[in-house]
């Protein structure tokens, strides 16, 4: 059974939650990309206010990924957004070893302007040894939300992204970006393309229940990028990005793993909103950089 037929069947079973224009989506091109990404992360134990209590006792986490991914529009939702099936292929992870990300798929749902609404089925990418949950900017790099700007001008735009924490939890992250449009120029690949760059701040907050614990999450940092778009269809030809950010996870009771790692250290017993019991926080500083480049035709 083809993917299109499966999606039609799912749409019928769900009572028409989506509309699938078979004729249109059948002709949707298969976009193929290569990617590279590098990560460095350091983890610390912190108090309820996010202040570091101990220097990291574990070595920094570093990782390098190289691979391919392909994306194709497969269904249209009633609000006009499009679901793109994204497959990760031929990927090597840390140590140049074959990565379990290879062969995994997820759905990127977005509007025509590139705004990402959701990443579906990403639980198959999350957690060790795949580590796909730390690669959010990579998975959304093919769908930037670019404002309309005259050549040589700047414009601000906020973008909301789903940030994956683990198999069951995530928060929405806002990118507060300032964009610059340089005009149509010759790209490093030697083709004429629309050239943009951006810089900005990252912020995000969320809360969730985790077993009997309450988990509060915050994310702060900065980001930047350099983007080249096709002059005909405005598809991504190249997108280089960097996220420099800190994720703080505050839990009640204190994370057992943190206490084990830091030899019995606990956060102060003062808690937000008068809650009882010890609170512990894990704070991780991550620097992720990468590049996505389009390949010609399937």
Characteristics of this structure?
298 residues; mainly beta; 13-stranded antiparallel sheet; 53% strand; disordered N terminus
What is the strand and helix layout of this fold?
Layout: H1 3-13, E1 18-19, H2 22-26, E2 31-46, E3 52-54, E4 61-77, E5 82-92, E6 105-110, E7 116-120, H3 136-139, E8 154-164, E9 170-186, E10 192-210, E11 213-230, E12 236-252, H4 256-261, E13 280-295
Antiparallel strand pairs: 1-4, 2-3, 2-4, 2-13, 4-5, 5-6, 6-7, 8-9, 9-10, 10-11, 11-12, 12-13
What profile does the largest beta sheet have? 13 strands, antiparallel
Strand content: over 45%
Number of domains: 1
Using only C-alpha atoms, the radius of gyration works out to 21 Å
What's the end-to-end separation, in Å?
A: 21 Å
Helical content stands at under 10%
Q: Pairing-aware structural class of the strands and helices? A: mainly beta
What's the count of strands?
A: 13
Shape: globular
Task: Give unreliable regions as ranges.
Answer: 1-23, 254-276
Global mean pLDDT? 78
Q: How many helices in DSSP terms?
A: 4
Listing every helix as H and every strand as E from the N terminus to the C terminus, the arrangement reads HEHEEEEEEHEEEEEHE
Explain how this protein is built.
Helix content is 9%, strand content 53%. Strands 1, 2, 3, 4, 5, 6, 7, 8, 9, 10, 11, 12 and 13 form a 13-stranded antiparallel sheet that branches. The radius of gyration is 21 Å and the shape is globular. With 298 residues, the chain is mainly beta. The protein has one domain (31-295).
């Amino acid at each position: 059974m083809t993917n299109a037929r499966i999606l039609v069947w799912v749409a019928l079973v769900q009572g028409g939650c989506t509309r699938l224009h078979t004729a249109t989506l059948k002709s949707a091109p298969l976009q193929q990309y290569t990617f590279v990404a590098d990560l460095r992360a350091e983890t610390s134990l912190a108090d309820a206010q996010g202040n570091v209590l101990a220097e990291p006792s574990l070595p920094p986490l570093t990782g390098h990924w190289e691979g391919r991914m392909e994306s194709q529009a497969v269904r249209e939702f009633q609000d006009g957004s499009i679901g793109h099936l994204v497959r990760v292929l031929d990927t090597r992870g840390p140590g140049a070893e074959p990565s379990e990300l290879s062969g995994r798929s997820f759905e990127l749902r977005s509007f025509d302007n590139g705004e990402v609404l959701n990443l579906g089925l990403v639980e198959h990418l999350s957690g060790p040894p795949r580590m796909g949950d730390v690669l959010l900017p990579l998975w959304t790099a093919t769908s930037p939300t670019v404002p309309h700007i005259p050549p040589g001008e700047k414009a601000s735009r906020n973008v909301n992204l789903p940030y994956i924490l683990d198999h069951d939890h995530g928060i929405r992250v806002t990118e507060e970006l300032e964009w610059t449009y340089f005009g149509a120029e010759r790209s490093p690949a030697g083709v004429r393309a629309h050239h943009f760059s951006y810089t900005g701040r990252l912020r995000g907050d969320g809360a969730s229940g985790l077993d009997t614990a309450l988990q509060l999450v915050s994310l702060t940092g900065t980001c930047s990028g350099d983007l080249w778009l096709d002059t005909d269809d405005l598809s991504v030809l190249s997108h280089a990005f960097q996220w420099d950010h800190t994720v703080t996870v505050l839990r009640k009771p204190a994370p057992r793993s943190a206490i084990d790692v830091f030899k019995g250290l606990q956060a102060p017993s003062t808690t937000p909103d008068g809650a009882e019991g010890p609170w512990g926080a894990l704070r991780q500083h991550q620097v992720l950089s990468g590049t996505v480049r389009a390949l010609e035709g399937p």
